[in-house]
């Protein structure tokens, strides 16, 4: 069968990561989290004390960062050099700084090339027992990284739903106080990110899946249905 590339974009809190992993598991393909690449680049800049307002310094630092992305959907990992940063890149410090790093055009050009190489590798030389192809998630996958992908999905959810999910995920509850404390983070990061990448509206040919009124399994099925129709 031809390699299967499924490109998924969407805002934070849309459930992208868990849904995309499950979709990749169902399809038997690899999984690539491009947000983790921007997060790992940011982690490295913070550790090295790079001035994040100095775009040239940020780009020069990121160019030298050795990123190793594990693409197994059952346990995707991220490493910088030989340091496993899978958990560290989820921390509040990286989350607060990542949009600044991702807004540097030379950083994007660099990571986009690496993302395309990883997609090619997953298509040409799949891991043993895996189907050729990859489910790739991010903000600009359907439009910039892989606009030729046979399946392109924008995974969205209403803002109040995304904020509640993030509160549940990060704080273990979606009560009013938890929701209030994550709202600014979610809304603000999307606002800043949307100045760099346009993931709020579906580009031509991109299918929107709105998960607001779907549970996790329902969302996975909805994305798999788009894959089924397109292939
Ligand atoms: O998806 P996640 O929240 O892990 O992404 C972290 C950040 O990486 C986003 O807030 C955005 O700034 C950046 N990003 C991006 N383009 C992508 C994926 C992520 O700019 N394709």
Task: Supply the key terms.
ATP-binding, 8 strands, alpha/beta, 231 residues, 9 helices, single chain, Cytidylate_kinase_dom, 5-stranded parallel beta sheet, transferase
Structural class determined from secondary elements:
alpha/beta
Enumerate the spans where pLDDT stays under 50 for 5 or more consecutive residues.
Answer: none
Span from first to last CA?
10 Å
In percent, how much strand structure appears in the residues? 5-15%
3D shape: globular
Keywords: ATP-binding, Cytoplasm, Kinase, Nucleotide-binding, Transferase
Main location: cytoplasm
Domain Cytidylate kinase: 6-227
Protein name: Cytidylate kinase
Give an overview in words.
The chain is of the alpha/beta class and 231 residues long. The protein has nine helices and eight strands. Strand 4 and strand 5 form a beta hairpin. Helix 1 packs across helix 9 and helix 3 runs parallel beside helix 5. It starts with a strand and ends with a helix. The mean pLDDT is 95. Bound molecules: cytidine-5'-monophosphate (C5P). The site of cytidine-5'-monophosphate (C5P) has 16 residues, from helix 2, helix 4 and helix 8. InterPro entries: Cytidylate_kin (IPR003136), Cytidylate_kinase_dom (IPR011994), P-loop_NTPase (IPR027417). It catalyses: dCMP + ATP = dCDP + ADP; CMP + ATP = CDP + ADP. Keywords: ATP-binding, Cytoplasm, Kinase, Nucleotide-binding, Transferase. Its EC number is 2.7.4.25.
């Amino acid at each position: 069968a031809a390699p299967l590339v499924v490109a998924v974009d969407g805002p934070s809190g849309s459930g992208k990561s868990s849904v995309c992993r499950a979709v990749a598991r169902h399809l038997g393909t690899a999984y690539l989290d491009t947000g983790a690449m921007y997060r790992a680049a940011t982690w490295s800049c913070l550790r090295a004390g790079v001035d994040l307002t100095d775009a040239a310094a940020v780009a020069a630092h990121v160019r030298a960062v050795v990123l190793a992305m594990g693409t197994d959907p059952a346990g995707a990992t991220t490493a910088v050099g030989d340091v496993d940063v899978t958990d560290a890149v989820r921390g509040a410090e990286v989350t607060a700084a990542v949009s600044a790093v991702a807004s540097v055009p030379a950083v994007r050009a660099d990571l986009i090339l690496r993302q395309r190489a990883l997609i090619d590798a997953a298509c040409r030389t799949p891991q043993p027992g895996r189907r050729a192809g990859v489910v790739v998630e991010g903000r600009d996958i359907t439009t910039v990284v892989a606009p030729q992908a046979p399946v392109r999905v924008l995974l969205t959810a209403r803002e109040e739903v995304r904020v509640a999910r993030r509160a549940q995920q990060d704080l273990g509850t979606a009560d009013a106080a938890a929701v209030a404390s994550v709202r600014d983070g979610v809304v603000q990061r999307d606002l800043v990110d949307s100045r760099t990448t346009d993931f709020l509206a579906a580009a031509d040919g991109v299918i929107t899946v709105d998960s607001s009124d779907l549970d996790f399994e329902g969302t996975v099925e909805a994305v798999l249905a788009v894959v089924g129709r397109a292939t």
